[in-house]
Amino acid sequence: MDDAGFSSPDDFVDKPTGLSQEELDVLTDQLVEALKSVFDPEIPVDIYELGLIYRVDVSDDKDVVVDMTLTAPGCPVAGEMPEWVREAVMKIDGVKSCTVNLVFEPPWDASKMSDEAKLALNMF
After folding, report:
1. Residue 98 falls within a domain, yes or no?
2. Segment holding 58, helix H or strand E
3. Would you say residue 8 has pLDDT above 80?
4. Beta-carbon neighbour count of residue 101 at 10 Å?
5. The predicted structure's pLDDT at residue 14
6. What gap in Å lies between CA 57 and CA 65, rounded to an integer?
7. Is 112 a member of any domain?
8. According to a count of CB atoms within 10 Å of the terminal CB, is the N or C end of the chain lower?
9. 3-state SS assignment for residue 9
């Protein structure tokens, strides 16, 4: 398991039954790329590497639901970041819709960050 809490990117996507494994693999790669395009403006690391993405669910119709958290409940961009995530996911060809749920359980802490994020923030 990596420090973001996933054994691999495939582990954060709940697998729909109507998509082939190849389609799901491509979509998973695209989702990771989209999530890595969103940054907390106060931290120079993307939200995926920070470990802020807790779950991604993809339906057979390519409706996407993302459960994410923030580094702190009082984050100044709390109202904006879920929309940034939704916009990034909606740029993926074929995605029908995207809902982003802001969750605070379990609470985020630095142990959820990937080694890449820790290196970028000089936390080793």
Report:
1. yes
2. strand 53-58
3. no
4. 13
5. 57
6. 5
7. yes
8. C
9. helix
| Residues 88 and 34 sit within 8 Å (Cβ to Cβ) | yes
- DSSP class of residue 111? G
Residue pair 8/29 in contact by the 8 Å Cβ criterion: no
Per the DSSP assignment, residues forming a β-bridge with 30 are none
**Among candidates 14, 82, 13, which has minimal Cα distance to 47?**
82
Domain range for 22:
9-120
User: Nearest CA to 40 among 1, 18, 63, 71?
Assistant: 71
Helix (H) or strand (E) holding 82: helix 81-90
- Asked if residue 46 is part of any domain, the answer here is yes
Under 8 Å CB-to-CB from 33, ≥6 apart: which residues? none
Is there a domain that residue 2 lies in? no
Distance CA 91, CA 86 (A): 9
- pTM (whole model) above 0.85: no
Q: How many domains does the chain have?
A: 1
- How far apart, in Å, do the first and last CA atoms of the chain sit? 19
CA distance 107 to 32: 22
- The CATH number assigned to the domain holding 101 equals 3.30.300.130
